[in-house]
Design goal:
Number of domains: 2
Largest sheet: 5 strands, parallel
Strand order of the largest sheet: 7-6-4-8-9
Structural class: alpha/beta
Radius of gyration: 20 Å
Strand content: 5-15%
CATH topology of the largest domain: Rossmann fold
Number of strands: 10
Order of helices and strands: HHHHEHEHEHEEHEHHEHEHEEHHHH
Number of helices: 16
CATH architecture of the largest domain: 3-Layer(aba) Sandwich
């Protein structure tokens, strides 16, 4: 357990004890539910360009007992899609995991099920945590409609015209990311010469950093964000962004790569050296511990594979690109409402 913080140890101990976990869930739900739901409703009405308002800290609202299930709205929208009112009683992975990395929290939770996207990931989880049942449901974004109405989407698309959507590689909690932003901006300008507008989708923590925003604002690009990670409308807002675009771009693969392809938006990865720097020594140990130790070589190999696969600016989605993203994001694992109800209802 070297490199595991006291906070993480307490969290995992709580997750492993059903009664203690239920007590903590009930405490935070009673404390934050009303104010949190009101804040969610307020943020749902904000402009997608209000990056400050959408990125500010907000209450943690436990709609689901598993902590990570309350991130990005994946579980919330899956349940809405299927009409599920009860708790999923499963750990839902909060994005794409490369290599054979398994988050340590997944071992700790007392629930015996794990929700993921692809069959390949199911096979890895069966190997790593054989005592738990892994269930693939395909790309999570399938279950979330765009946050905005058809009329709003049509109006915004008319205003934007032909649109390039860009995802800069983002920071994480207590881990700052660094890359040559001016070089990236120049490549965006090269790609965007035949587009009417450029949307820069920033992760909420980066959107609050003026230095991170400045290079894009200087070029007149429009800044947007899917919102705070506790915003249950995050994935619905993200879907709206992708559907408003005609082409997507990044400088490193992420969960959004497969989401873009699933929604039939071509994607281009401009390869850059990316530095991820924990904010202090204790966070450094936590970061490298969660990054999979010996698995990091496989993660690097897969990142390189996708960077090469999407390393050409092209106006369509190649068969190889579709095949690879389908495999990793589980395009063939999407479930019907009836199937989800039979599993989780």
């Amino acid at each position: 357990m070297s490199g595991v913080s006291i906070k993480d140890r307490i969290k995992r101990l709580t997750a492993s004890q059903p009664l203690l976990e239920q007590m903590m869930f009930s405490f935070y739900r009673a404390k934050n539910l009303n104010s949190g739901l009101a804040e969610l409703e307020r943020r749902a009405g904000l402009s997608m360009y209000d990056v400050d308002g959408l990125s500010k800290e907000m209450p943690y609202v436990p709609l689901e007992r598993v902590i990570d299930n309350n991130i990005y709205g994946y579980a919330n929208y899956l349940k809405q899609y299927a009409g599920i009112e009860r708790d999923l009683k499963a750990y839902m992975e909060h994005g794409l995991f490369l290599g054979k990395i398994v988050h340590l929290d997944q071992f700790a939770w007392h629930f015996a099920r794990i929700i993921t996207m692809s069959q390949g990931r199911v096979d890895i989880l069966k190997e790593k945590i054989p005592q738990k049942e892994a269930i693939a449901v395909g790309p999570y974004i399938h279950y979330a409609p765009p946050l905005y109405s058809d009329e709003e989407m049509a109006r915004m698309k008319n205003e934007l015209g032909k649109t390039l959507l860009v995802y800069p590689f983002h920071s994480m909690k207590n881990v700052k990311v660094g890359f040559n932003e001016q070089e990236f901006v120049e490549e965006i300008k090269r790609v965007a010469k035949d587009f009417d507008n450029v949307l820069i989708s920033l992760y909420f923590s980066d959107a609050l950093d003026p230095e991170r925003c400045a290079p894009y604002e200087a070029e007149g690009f429009k800044l947007i964000t899917a919102g705070h990670r506790f915003d249950q409308h995050f994935v619905a807002r993200q879907r709206a962004h992708i559907e408003l675009s005609d082409f997507t771009m990044s400088n490193g693969m992420g969960t959004q790569t497969g989401f873009c392809i699933y929604l039939n938006r071509p994607h281009y990865i401009y390869r850059q050296d990316i530095e991820q720097k924990p904010i202090n020594s204790s966070e450094s140990a936590r970061f490298y511990n969660s990054s999979g130790g010996d698995e990091r070589e496989l993660v690097a190999f897969q990142r390189d594979y996708f960077s090469r696969l999407f390393g050409e600016f092209r106006s369509d989605i190649s068969e190889d690109q579709l095949d690879a993203t389908s495999k990793f994001w589980g395009f063939d694992q999407v479930k019907t409402k009836e199937e989800l109800l039979s599993i989780f209802g």
